[in-house]
Structures are given as C-alpha cells and as structure tokens.
Amino acid sequence: MDRRDFLKLCGAGSVAGLMGVKKAGGYVAAHNWDRYDFGSGPAVKDRLNQGPFPDELVPGWEVVMATTPSSAVVPNFGMGLVTYICDEIGPPKKEGESLAESIENLAKIDLGSKLYIRLNWKDLQQRPGRLDLCEHWKITFEMAKKYNKRVGFRVMLSNPDIPGYAVPDFVAEKVPFVKLGKTTETGLAGKVHYEPRYDNAFFQSAFKEFDGLLADAYNGHPSVEYMDTYMYGFWGEGHTWPFKGNPFADYLTAERTFVGMFEQQLANWSKTPLTTNTQPDWSKVGNAEILERTVRSNNWLRTDTIFIENMQIEALSNRPAWTAATVEVGMSDGSAESLRIREGVTYTDNVIYHVLDVGANYWSLWNWHRILADRILNYYRQYPGAIDKIARCVGYRVRPSWVWHYEKDGYPGLVIGFVNDGIAGVPGVLRVELVSEDGKVKVGGCLDAGYPLAGKVRQAQFVLPKGTDWKGLKLRGEIEVKGMRYPVRWACHQETNKDGSLTLRQNR
Predict the structure, then answer these.
(1) N or C: which end of the chain has fewer CB within 10 A?
(2) 194 and 339 share a domain?
(3) Phi and psi of 19, rounded to 5°?
C-alpha cells in the first residue's frame, strides 16, 4: 500500500469531514520521541546493585570467566522472526494440501520462532455470549504447542479486503455504517467501503463482551506472545486511507471512543503485551493519545511499514529501551517478478536492513496475500544472507560477558557484566539468579528496566553466603513483562544447559 501523500495532507491539517463531520477541535499533535519523558518504565523489584564497583567495595577482584557471542538463533520471549499464518485475506491455500497441513508447514519453519494470525471479529464470534473460534485459529494454537512457539494476533474490526463487514452479522444488523466510497488504491477491487459507528451503544456493548470473552480465555495464555491493540479503520491500523475524515461527529468523540476501547483492553489484558500501531493520525481518531498511553502502561509498539512515514521511524527508533517493537513488512516469494532488485539489492533484503536500523524486536516472515511455506523458503534458499543476519541479531541477545570474583569481610561475591549483542533493549525487566545444584544457595534480583541496552554493558553485584564456591553455580535469567516471567536463554557461544542457564566455571 502506497501512502506517500500522508505527511503532506496530515501536515496541512485539512482533513475534511464525511457525512457532515466537524473539523477536529482537540487534535493531539505528534512529538519527537528522542529524550521524551515517558516515565521510568516497569517497576523493578529486588533491584541489584549495578555499580559503580571500586576496589574498596570489591577488593582483590579478578576475572574468572568470560563468554563470547553466540551465532545461533535464540528463541526468547519478546523477540524473533514471526511466521505469518493468516493475513487480511485469510489463511494459506494450496491445491492438494489441507488447511492443517499448510499451517503446519508454516509453523515448523525453523527461521520463525513465533507465529502470527490476523482475523476478523466474525472469525472468532458469530453469536452473542460465546466465542466461535475459526478452524485456522484452533490449528495455529495446536501447532504453536507442538513446535514450542508462541502466537501473536490481531482482531480486525474493519477489513477492506473482504466482501461485507469484519464484524459479526448480529453486530452489523444493529449498528449504523457510514459510507466512505470506492477506491482503486487499497482493498477489494470494486468494493464500496463502509465504517461502523464505533461509538454506537450496541457496538460498544458487543465489543466489550467479545473482548472480555477473549481475554478470559487467552490473557496470560502460555502460547500467547502479544496482542495487537484494536484501532480504528482498515485492518485495525488506525486509518481509512485514502479516504479523508472519519464517521464520528467530531475529533473528541473519535478520540474518546478509541481511548475508552484501549483502556478496556488494558484492563482485560493485564498479563499479555499489547502492541499499538505507530500510524500517524491521518484519520484524526486519537492515535497519538493511544500511543502515549501504550508506552506509559509499559506495552509495546508495532508498524505495518518501513518505507513510508518518517513519523513511524521516529517513534520506533527512539522508543524507550523497555518497549518492544514489531515490524510487519511483506517479503518476496522468490519469483523473478517479486525480487525487485535495485543496484544489486533485493527489495526484501533492503527491508531487512532498515528493520535492523530501527532496532526492532520482531520482523515478519510474510508473503503478503500469498501466504505459503514454499514461498518463504523459495526466497530464503536464493537469498539467505540478510534473513540469517536478522534472525541472529533481532531483539535482545544477553550474555554474562565478564564474571569477576572477589571476597570482602569473609563473604565471597561476583560482579557480572551483562552484554546485549542484539539491536534492542530488554522489553521488560531482566531478573537474574545464581543457584546451587542443591538449591541451598539462591541469590539474585533485577536489572533496571530495559537493561542491558543494545551494544552496552550493565554490571550487577551478587553477594554469596560465606563458604560458597562460585564454581558450579547456575546463572539463570528471566524476563518479567506485565507480571509474567519467561525464561531467558543466554546468547553465548559457551555451552549452556537445556533450560538456557549457564553453569559458571573457570575459563580464564
């Protein structure tokens, strides 16, 4: 989708109304994200002493162990390549292959450590008071469990790429829709596009019930990685481009409606990260306010582009270190016409290097509107270099690079310098523990939110009980996000244990 005119039109502030819509009176302006005060991030419990460590605090220190970076893919929570199972036109279809076979072929691609599914509201609910989960949703979660992967998902309230509406029939029958018109620039050819009156009382009641049902089943679910925020308009991305205006009476009504929907989602999804699109507020529906609330509530960001709006690049590249970012951009299927080679670089490789530029946590393995495992692999076999690179540096990749040993007042201790070889900060709080084999020694705590930063070192002190031999202790890591803890596998070349922990030993 080409939206090059967004910035000129948004900058002019001249979005005309649809159906008698008034000009926005309370429009929230965008701002630079660099050095913007979003607060201190997630609360840090049991904060470790993170220095400085002069000789009088850690006397007689010596480096007893050191690690080097791993060249392997590290499938931790909060990072990875995301294999798309379903987009706005539906799940994969291949002649002679069942839906289950097609989804499993995607799920077992080693490159992707996460799965992603995008559905219409009506794919998950058809009648009030209950969920009616579609087959590809069920199969995706079955495959996630089988291949030890987690699922990200989005539920669309509007979809220009399907006949009719994205909402269930029982909602469409009782909610007014506002006609936007026809366009050749996006969506299903020849479709007349409509948007629901999201502020309608019945729509809000049905939406609240649906989101509550979904959260009851999947908030904190062990197979869920993140959930996209419900946003206004096409694909739930916060716009109805290329149409100007929106179906609301005025800007404040639009903002109030979607802020209310966000706040409800925030309450319902108390354990699952929400990812909000960084879409500039083309349609004047309160996107800037929702983004602000997303970051301040320690949730995450996403974008559906890397080569269009400079405002999205500003937000992604200058976001707080504890905020994850997922970048969704379609890739080539390896066919000659899809490679789009310029100056010796394919379009997909160009995308990948720009995803690296913004320090993303996730990138999509996704053949836009042509989802199929064969197509992903067809491109990868021809051009593996950039995909291998991003698979091995996307997100955070933490290792205990230096281990210093010292003794003070009869107490042995360690100072560990944690290094992040990835391109993003830790999207939450990193909890670290030293544990003995018999469980009698257990010492640990947390680093500051977002640390260690990409390409940086963060040191932490561990004071051990008297008489403890540091050799043989296991160093374990967990990432804490919205009160949930997920094991972290250390991204070091040196051998780790099956659970991702590292047994300390003298190698210096």
Answers:
(1) C
(2) yes
(3) 55, 40
Please tell me whether residues 338 and 381 are part of one structural domain.
yes
Which of 153, 258, 256, 259 is closest to 195 using CA atoms? 258
What is the sign of the dihedral through the CA atoms of 141, 146, 147 and 150? positive
| Cα angle: 295, vertex 300, 304; to 5 degrees | 120
Cα gap 470→405, rounded to integer Å = 8
Mean per-residue pLDDT, 153-182: 97
Q: What's the rounded Cα separation, in Å, for the pair 492 and 399?
A: 6
CB 175, CB 146: distance < 8 Å: no
Q: Which domain holds residue 489?
A: 62-71+396-503
In this structure, which amino acid lies at residue 96? G
How many CA atoms lie within 13 Å of 155's alpha carbon, on the beta-carbon side? 19
pLDDT in tens, 323-346: 999 999 999 999 999 999 999 999
Residue 24 falls inside a structural domain = no
Return the CA Rg of the chain. Answer: 24
Q: Which amino acid does the sequence have at 441?
A: V
Give the full edge-to-edge strand order of the sheet including 62-66.
62-66, 398-408, 411-420, 457-463
Same domain flag for 386 and 411: no
> For the chain, what's the residue count?
508
CA distance 93 to 98: 8
Label the pairing between strands 429-435 and 411-420: unpaired
Give the model's pLDDT for residue 310.
93
Domain annotation covers residue 5 = no
The closest alpha carbon to 274, from 215, 356, 234, 203, belongs to 215
Same domain flag for 351 and 316: yes
**Number of domains the chain contains:** 2
Residues in CB range of 357: below 8 A, 6 or more apart: 317
CB 333 within 8 A of CB 368: no
The model carries a pTM of 0.93
Distance of CA 436 to the CA centre of its chain: 35
pLDDT tens by residue, 405-416 = 999 999 999 999
